[in-house]
Queue: 2 jobs
Job 1
Amino acid sequence: MKSELEIIGVEGALRLIRPSRIYKCSYLRAQAEGEFGIEGEQVRWFNIGTTIDAMAENPVRRVFWLVNGKDFIGEVSVTCLEMPVAPITYYCIRESQRGRGFATVMLRLLLPYLKELGYSVANLWIYHKNLASRKVAERNGAVADATDPSINIHYDIKL
Ligand SMILES: CC(C)(COP(=O)(O)OP(=O)(O)OC[C@H]1O[C@@H](n2cnc3c(N)ncnc32)[C@H](O)[C@@H]1OP(=O)(O)O)[C@@H](O)C(=O)NCCC(=O)NCCS
């Protein structure tokens, strides 16, 4: 484990970091809150079963955590395989912290970093009924592919 926290971006008291064991207790507490998706459906945390070190060191599926002081708030992951498009595979805010703008900030801190890495577009697919997620993406400049009628809407974000 790296001894220093890898900070990707800062906004007020919020920091976007690479996963760190420093936040292990808070991360585990967040997972214990459960993860409720749309329509009350409970789904598993995406990275459950993956160690924090493995998450921090994976160069392909890069995971980032939003933290507030000592508290883990949420995570976002990006599959970094091919330039110039960075697919955002998933994001989630812990159940107790939703509706406070945190996902919007998390993405806002991530996007300049992806640009710095050399990507020119980030993309993501969002289930059409996931209005909260669509709002988060659209507030960060995501534009939907209006020609695609599928239930998962394809969005591009120009970096
Ligand atoms: C989607 C998710 C990441 C949003 O996180 P968040 O921190 O609550 O998002 P924000 O507070 O930044 O913004 C959410 C916005 O959607 C709104 N919203 C929340 N639920 C909504 C709903 N059912 N319908 C319409 N808008 C909704 C919020 O009011 C807020 O808008 P406002 O700031 O104008 O009030 C969070 O709900 C979550 O983790 N969901 C489960 C995992 C998931 O669906 N991930 C996305 C996969 S693509």
Job 2
Amino acid sequence: MKALRKIKPAYGCMQLVDIPEPVTAPGHVKVRVEYCGICGSDMKFYHWTQRPGMNIPIPVTFGHEYSGVVTEIGEGVTNIQVGDRVVSETPEIFCGKCEQCRTGNQLLCKSKRSIGYQVDGAMAEYICIRQELIHKIPDSVSFEEAAVCEPASVTAHAVYDKAHVQPGDTVLIFGPGLIGLLTLEHAKCCGAKVILAGLSKDEERLAIGKKLGADVVIKTDQANVRDEVMKLTGGRGVDFVFECTGVGSVLDEALGTLKRMGKMVLIAFFKPGDIPIEMWNTVVNNEVEIVGSYGQRYGNWERVLKLMDMKKIDVRAVTTHIFDLEDWEKGFGITERQEGLKVLLKP
Ligand SMILES: [Zn+2]
Ligand SMILES: [Zn+2]
């Protein structure tokens, strides 16, 4: 079968190669991949600037955001059938014994090995995945939409589990990229007022944000974000900030917009050394909470699939390109140059 793989531990070094189809192990199902999205972290993997300690065996197949159809079930699989339309969570290997695993947080297990990095991923015709990670796609949700479940679940975790946004809250989102826009959709599901902040070069993305329900858009290179936010909130500040840029200089700007006892949720990763916070005293003085949000959990996937089924979130607006897997270079190029939002590959 065709598979897009990292073939050397260095910059680039990706190739579409022919490899044997995976064998369906006990407790696993084999899925024919319909679509697989290109993620921002795939670009880091491409550049080989992945976080230390990721322990990646090479060669390995890319891809962790996919949808597909079950074509074979392994020994001991009972609740999944051939023909089921599915998506899956990403930690193919975890210890099952540690505190994180036993509390449903397998993504934070020290022994976690995720598809698309430490084990073969879904930028291929087939993937084999353990049955516990599977979620079934509702009939009304297309394969294209379902392939965006992973980033939609990541942002669901940030909004529902980490922030606990309530109706009437004011939310400020820095960064109108894919993650920022999906965060916006979830915040709107909560009944929040949403301010979306981005650069003027992000015009198109900000316009999509408007369409998806952003109440106010601020161009951070044309206006003082803090002044604008204070005007909009009667000097109070916002209840929540979601940091979706990974740009260190945004942190001080963000802290300046938060209400006293407000909360900032960090979703994006920063470059090492690029975290210049001058406002630590504001954190203490205003009892600001800063929390990290990493990945997604079982409940986030189920909720996102329901929200897609109910048409409460729309991921079609953020899916800008679809290419055949053979044309992966076009897709990675568009993602690299930030010319689109979600790019899907079709094996
Ligand atoms: Zn991803
Ligand atoms: Zn564990």
